[in-house]
Give the backbone structure.
Amino acid sequence: MTDTALTTNMPRRKPSAEERYYMASQWELMRRKFRKHRLANVSLVVLALLYLGAIFCGFIAPYSVDKRDSDYLFAPPQRITFRDPEGNLGWRPYVFGFNRERNPKTLKLELTVDETKMFPVYFFMKGEPYSLLGFKSDIHLFGVEKPGYFYLMGTDKLGRDIFSRIWYGARVSLTIGLIGVTLSFILGCLIGGISGYYGGTIDMLVQRIIEFLISIPTIPLWMALAAAIPRNWPQYQVYFAITIILSLVGWCGLARVVRGKLISLREEDYVLAARLSGQKDMNIIVGHLLPAFMSYLIVNLTLAVPGMILGETALSFLGLGLRAPAVSWGVLLYEAQQVAVVMLYPWLLWPGAFVIITVLAFNFLGDGLRDAADPYR
């Protein structure tokens, strides 16, 4: 038997863990490193739940976005108990109702908890109809039967459920970040790539424009651009206008980084080989140079989304972005501008908590991706 036959018949040895590590691809190493970052994994789950909640907001919200209850204006969040009216502990949650009492000091009618009124909370119950991904439905995640009421996070000045409006507002606040970042990502990569690849007059002109845009204070620039939006525009036009505005002022930082990367890579051998093979300049930029530092671009894309969300929230909070009857987290926070209102009704700040959670989750996710992009560190 020849040596070749012996080699062929020998059982193949499984590579060791160290060998698999050094044989793994770049994306496999990034995936392994990212899985070790617990905070980033938790943030990924939180963001997935938030975006799923925004998609299925009609199912999660017990009431429609404009449902009003004039009997319960500025109602505080209802208390939840797992004891039934007889005092027995069970698995079904109950909520306490409200009673109107006149405050002896201010002589104002106020809502106080009435433990004699208890409403059982049911899951997957029928309620107000809504549209879910093009399909009509009236099944909600939870709710109470009429004449009961359930305001998990309280109500606003018009008696609208804040919990329901937060999830409806998430559709705008979360998607405007993705759309805006996508547009600014494309602008930053293309403009920065052209500036770094060609250099010369084009590079000087692009860099002077970027320096001018960066030197303008961000909030006044947003206010000036948003104030130019006509007041009589429909809300969907205002939505896309704000997205474009945020994108136009958010691409400069990425463009400068892309320019610097391309200046150091444009003289590499594989770029020269692509030129000699007859490829067009745009194909070289998009197909060869940008993928060379794709890990950085992914991290930048992740960290840019919170800035877009905060930009929309700030504009709407100042009354220069989306306006009622549109619903976003910034529009909901607009009602909490006055300190006196916040002191009396602190539950109006619930949308701000969702903004904080979303921004922190994106930052932690970006931190995990940044560590994963350098798996050998």
Q: What stands out?
A: The chain has a mean pLDDT of 82.
